[in-house]
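RETRY 2/3 - previous attempt timed out on the joint model. Re-submitting the same 563-residue input unchanged.
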Amino acid sequence: MNLLVCISKTPETTAKIDFVNDSKEFNTEGVQYIMNPYDEWYALVRAIELKEALGGTVTAINVGPAANDIIIRKALAIGADEAVRIDAEASSASFVAKQISAYASDKSFDIIFTGKESIDYNGSLVGSMLAEYLGLPFLSYVSKLDINDGKATVSCDIEGGVELMSLNPPFVLSAAKGLAEQRIPNMRGIMMAKRKPLNAVEAVEHNDSTRVVRYSMPPEKSGVKLVDPENMDELVRLLHEEAKVI
Amino acid sequence: MSVLVYVEAVDGKYKKTAYEACSYGFRLAQMNSANLVALTNADSQTASELASYGVKTVVCFQSEDLHDSAVLSSIIADAAAKYVANAVILTDDSRSKALLGRLAVKLDASAVSGASSLPESASEFQVSKSIFSSKAIGHYSLDSAKKVISVARNSVGIHENAADLSHEEFDASGYTSSIELIEVKRVKGTVPLPEAELVVSAGRGMKDPGNWGIVEELADTLGATTACSRPVSDSGWRPHHEHVGQTGIAIKPNLYIAIGISGAIQHLAGVNNSKTIVVINKDPEAPFFKAADYGVVGDLFDVVPRLSEAIKRQKNS
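RETRY 2/3 succeeded.
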C-alpha cells in the first residue's frame, strides 16, 4: 500500500508555555520540540505495521522549515521509507492541509494518516480539511484499522463508544490512542534514516483566513482550601454549599 | 441572512451541548440582526424543544449516513446556502471533529473548533479557544465573510429565549455514502467521560488494580464517571478510554476528584478546565494541590471510603 503520514512538530509535553511581544507570539526560547505524539505513536506506527504486513511504502510529510528535519529523520528512524518537507511555516490548519493536498493530489496514496489533533493548537482540523481538498472519505479518531482483501474495517471513537465501519481506500484518517503502540527507534533505524530520501519542496499559495492574534493564560486558581482528612462531612458541605457542584 | 446551527439528536434526544450551541448561535444572530435556523436530524416534535433557545426556524432532515462526514457536511453546506447563513455553529464533539474542516473548505470559511467565547461584536470577529492542552488561551480572528465554529461545552452556558418556531423540511435523499456503518457500540449505564459533569479519577497512589473498589464506590455514590492517569492506563490497570490528560481525553466537568494522582503537567493539561478540583493525596508536596480548589492531605485508603460515607449521609439528610 502507498501510505502517507502527516507529522507535525509540537513543543514537548512538559514545555513551559508563555508568550512574548505583547502576548502576540509564543516564546520559543528554551523550548524542546517533538513529533506530535498522536502522529508518532499511532498514525506513523500503524502505517508502518500495515506496510510490514502488506508491502508498500510509507512516506512521512511535514510542513515546516529546515529545522524540522530532525523530527522528520526520527519518523524515518522509526520506519518510514521516505520523507517530504514542504518548505514553509505551518501558519494554520488550512495552510497545512492545502500544502499537503497539493503534494498528495497526483500521488495515488491509499491511506493518508494524521494524528487526532496536535497537542499545541488542539484544532483537529487538518485531517478533515485535507479529505475535503482531495475529495476523499474521512474517518476521525480511529482507534482500530484493519485491511482485509483491500477493504478497510475501521473503529472510530465516539462519546462512550465506537462506530465500526467499512470502506475501500483511498481515504484520510485521524489516529487516536489504541490504533498502535509507540515504537522507540533502534540504532539500526537511526543509521538507516540518514540515508533515506528527505526532499524539500516548495509551498503553494494560500491565504490564512483564521489567525491567532493574541495569547493569554488561563485564570489562576485562588489557592487550595485544605480540609481535615478526618472530616469529610466538611468537604461535602463545601462542595454542596460553596462550590455548588454536588 | 441567518446563522445556522446543526444539532444532532442521539436516540431521539438532544444533549445539553445542543442547547449550548443554539444559545451561542442566538447571540451571534442577534449581533448580526439575523435569524437563527437549526438544522437537525430529529423529528419535528423533538425539534420543537429548540424554540426555547432562540431558534426561529427548525429544518428537519432524515439520513442514514450521519457517520459519513462527506455526506453530512454536504447536507449542512447546502442548507447553509439555502438559508443564506454567514455562520455555521456546531457542538464540540466527535461528530464535529470530522465535519468542521470539511465545512470550512466547502464554504471557504474561517474555522475555530472548541470556541469558548462569543465575539465582542460582529465587525471585530474574534473568539477565544483553549490551546496548548488547556495551558493557554488563543484569541482567534476569523477574517472570512463566513465562519464555522464549534462551541466548547460548559463555556458559554444555556440561555432561554422563547421564539415562535416555524418548521421546514430539507430533502437529504440525494446524498450517498461510500462508508458502510456496520455497528455502533456504546458503553451502557455510565455517562461517557467527555460528557460527564462529575468525574472520580485515580492514579498510581492506588498501588494495585485490585484496590479500585473504593474509587468505584465513590463514583457510584456520586453518580460520577471513573477516570485514571496515564501510568495507570499504560500499565493495563484500567482501560485506555479512562485515561484523561494531554495525550488522553481532555475533560471539562463541574467536579474532578483526583485520588492518588501527583499532578504531572501532562495530566493537569487534560483536566484543569474542570470547574472544581478536589485532590486527595498523602504527599502535601504533590504539585496537584497547586491546581486544586480543595485538598485533603491523607491516606486515600482511609479518606476515600470516609468521603463516600459522608456523601451518603448528605444525600439522606
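The first strand of chain B starts at residue 2 and ends at 7. Closing ticket.
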